[in-house]
Amino acid sequence: MFSIKRAKDGHILLVGRLDAAQVDRARNYFRSVTESCTLDFTDLDYISSAGLGFLLGTQKRLSESGHKLKLVNMNKYIRDIFRIAGFDNIFDIE
After folding, report:
1. Which secondary-structure segment (H or E) carries 63?
2. Beta strands 37-40; 44-47: pairing state
3. Is there a contact between 73 and 42 (Cβ–Cβ < 8 Å)?
4. Residue 90 contacts residue 81 (beta carbons within 8 Å)
5. What is the pLDDT of residue 53?
6. What is the pLDDT of residue 1?
7. What DSSP element (H or E) covers 82?
8. How far is CA 5 from CA 39, 45, 80, in A?
9. What is the helix (H) or strand (E) element at residue 36, kind and residue range?
10. With a threshold of 0.85, does the pTM exceed it?
11. CA 27, CA 18: separation in Å to the nearest integer?
């Protein structure tokens, strides 16, 4: 199960599991995102390599126009995945 929600504070909430089966849904949603934004991982339980690839592609697309993704509220498991993959040097993670 995976969903994307917009919070009142403007953050984009990722909920559930971002895996290969959900990447197309996420990609369709993020096509309309053209400015810097904050992704809230509070309720994200799992991310696969396909999910990481999607986020990397989105970061690259936004950075080409001077924007970026900020990632907040990662659990330890997901933060470790980003660190091991070296993505903590690519993304703004709080």
Report:
1. helix 49-63
2. unpaired
3. yes
4. no
5. 96
6. 87
7. helix 76-85
8. 10, 15, 24
9. none
10. yes
11. 11
Give the Cα separation of 56 and 42 in Å (integer).
19
> What are the structure tokens assigned to 73, written together?
């509220």
Unique residue bearing structure tokens 């959900």: 22
Query: The domain 2-74+86-93 belongs to what CATH superfamily?
Result: STAS domain (3.30.750.24)
How far is C-alpha 23 from the chain's CA centre? 11
Q: Report the alpha-carbon distance of residue 3 to residue 31 in Å, rounded.
A: 16
Contact 66, 57 (CB under 8 A): no
Give the chain's end-to-end CA distance (angstroms, integer): 25
Rounded to whole angstroms, the Cα distance separating 62 from 81 reads 22
Beta partners for 18?
Answer: 47
Give the residue extent of every domain in the chain.
2-74+86-93
